[in-house]
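Recall that a protein's primary structure is simply its ordered list of amino acids. Everything else, from secondary elements to tertiary packing, is in principle encoded there. The following example makes that idea concrete.
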Amino acid sequence: MKKIALWEAKHPKTVLLLAVLLLIPALIGYVCTGVNYDILSYLPDELESMQGERVLDETFNTAGISIVITEDMQPKYTLALKNEILKVDGVASVIWVDTLADIGIPADALPDVLKNVFYSADGTKTMMLVRYDPAGGEGSDLKAIAQIKTLLGENAFMSGLSVIVDDTREICDSQAPLYIAVAVALALAVMALMMESWFQPLIVLLSLGIAVLYNMGTNFFLGEISFITQCVAAVLQLGVTMDYSIFLIDRYSEEKKHYPAREEAMAAAVTKSFAALAGSSLTTVFGFLALCFMHLKLGFDIGFVMAKGVVFGIFTVVFVLPSIVLIFEKQILKYRHRSFIPDLTKVNEFTLKHKKAFALLFLLLLAPSYLIQKDIDLYYSMNKALPGYLTSMQGFEKLKNDFDMACTQFIIVDDSIPAAKLMEMESKLENMDGVSSLLAYNSIVGPAIPDDILPDEIMELCKQDGLQLFLVNSKFDPATPELTAQLQQMERIVKSYDPNAYITGEGAIVQGLIDTTDRDFAVTAVLSVAAIFILIAIVFKSVTLPIILVLSIELAIWLNLSLSVIMGKEASFVDPTVINCIQLGATVDYAILLTTRFREELRFAPKQEAMLKAVKMAQQSIFQSAAVFFAATFGVYVVCDIYIVRGMCALLARGAIISEFVIILFLAPLLVVCEGFIAKTTQSWRLPAQEED
């Protein structure tokens, strides 16, 4: 490693040129990486609702069905809109009342099945079902939806899962560059104040920017990434790897005092920092990799990309940053200034003077914070994850308020079941509490009418390949106890007629999401804690330190989530899992840094004095890292309109600050109080001659 470090220190321009050239394939890979805007597509394939979705898509071509609502529009104008939609590339059919009846018939005179499904209770609003042509290829439905939106006037609205996906795509594509710009600007401002040179933040961001582009470019090999990863990966990578750069630069400043040539000093800094940086980064990598074990494949998407980002961060710090520092060292020195990091010496003296009280307070906070955070209110529906001004959200509100439709379930049964039995099943389903309407073959045409005289649109919607489809509209919102009970009752009814039937749709899929994420949270929490616990035990050769350090960050995580409960804030279903892994992996470094410094200072001073020196030296790096992490994620929170991303960034921003204060206020006194026990359970903790004070 020393030879490599010395070579790169002597050839900084060559190294930087190679790093820049590698950006070319990275940029190409970034542009060519697909983005998945449908969170529900990450559910496990073994879920019955997902299997039903595949049948809907492959057999009935209705998995991505959309609903267009018109308000206070004469039938002839609604019919004209329908005909315009039919002309859109990718649209297979549009089903409205005119498919089965003359539009000249007043709504009140129509059969109940048509009136209840296609008209609102007051008759002023009507809706049509839009199906898409699978022959158009992947993404053709989104292109069609984008074109249909241009046809909608102020009295027309659109809803459905595919419309939500398209709205998510639009808002992400328009806002994602803004997230990065704001995060970078705020990170620059914070670093400029806290570092000792106005120019140094530019150096750090240049290095981290190269690492981010490497990471995002290599996502090409994954095929596609989720929109959540697309929005937050760069910001998170900036926040969790920035302290590696600062650590190397600070080490270089120290080594210059011992070497006559700056190239030798940089080589020594790289060599001596490498092991510490690699060990420190492993905790973060393990935290992210724990997400990869989620059954919800979104966890692998976020976890793998972010773990890869940390590796690229270390790579650029070790192999690229030294060259940049040496090339621009004159500018760094020219614009030096004093750091504006606050002096917390008095706070440290106070906490250590009352160390037993703070250690006791730490223990007293564990149980209530753990219990409170378990009651966090989670939402699972995308209706709460997106802003109300979007087309899909406005359409959803119209369906819910005017048609009494909060969500639609699709039931797929064997068409060979006798018509009388199917009509009996339909009757039971219609009489279920919370069912607002039902659309099925027999309810539309009756068993006496032959299939060959029915419109193709009805046959394609209701009957295909020996299967029959039912659309059941529910008054209950997804992810509510009422809908859960309704789905359970629906399953009992349907399975009694066809044990191989499928029940799918937004409500059923979201129910699968609830079951999956509940299991994922428990698994990832255990894995992340276990992995980091083992790593700390190996690094420090200790039995007690892993318990103390992990508990300190777990307390910060529980306090973070508990604040959401106390403030009555909802969180998205991914937040507890992601926060538990990311906050643990990213901020346990603070605890490791303080503990390492404390062990070093114990060789020269009694434990109280050693901790005062350790916390004074460590808190500068901790404060800088936490402040940049906070600034970057808080900036995204302020400008982001995607609530699922916004909420995650708010928790991460708050978590960075809480972790920082838990380390300074609680871990420092706790380590001093437990130092005697730590020494007995940790190999080579202090010199044998060191006596306790």
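The longest strand covers residues 125-132. The first helix runs from residue 2 to 10.
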